[in-house]
Specification:
This protein is of the alpha/beta class and 159 residues long. Helix content is 36%, strand content 32%. It contains three helices and five strands; from the N terminus they run H-E-H-E-E-E-E-H. Strand 1, helix 2 and strand 2 form a beta-alpha-beta unit.
Length: 159
């Protein structure tokens, strides 16, 4: 019985590793041993992307080198669109749209530009202004984390 359990566990792990499965946050970035990130100095998104890359053992270069890829975080912005109104005409619900644009330049290559949008619904209660401001701040932080994860995931798919 113990041997059967061991055999099943071994076969399961071989099947999972064979299909490309890996734990969340641990991405294969071996084709990017070092990288330069160009962005706004105070960009929170850049800090999150840098942390994710360092976690995945990518050396971050202090200055651009032609022999290493360059990731340019071109822009990130938050927009909001009205989804619904209260009967008195005040906004009841917004849709938050977080837009990210970045480019990746491989050594001796042309920059490849990428962009994506992340969406979140946000209910607005005019009677809870302070709490809603804090909630909006938290949602923006979560959107930035999702964006950083998505950029690193997209980098892991490039070969």
């Amino acid at each position: 019985m113990a041997r059967l359990s061991l055999l099943i566990a071994l076969l399961s792990s071989m099947l999972l590793s064979g299909c490309g499965f890996h734990l969340r946050g641990d991405l294969p970035l071996s084709h990017f041993p070092a990288m330069y990130i160009q962005s706004d100095r105070h960009s929170e998104l850049a800090a999150l992307v840098s942390n994710r890359l360092e976690h995945n053992k990518v050396e971050l270069l202090a200055s651009y080198q032609q022999s290493a890829p360059m990731l340019q975080l071109l822009s990130d912005s938050l927009e909001r669109r009205t989804l619904s109104l209260f009967p008195n005409g005040q906004v009841a619900e917004y849709e938050l749209i977080y837009k990210v644009s970045y480019a990746l330049t491989m050594p001796d290559g042309e920059p490849q530009q990428y962009q994506f949008e992340l969406f979140r619904d946000y209910q607005d209660d005019p009677n809870q202004a302070a709490a809603k401001a804090k909630e909006l701040e938290l949602m923006l932080g979560e959107l930035r984390q999702q964006a950083a994860n998505r950029i690193v995931r997209q980098l892991s798919r490039l070969h």
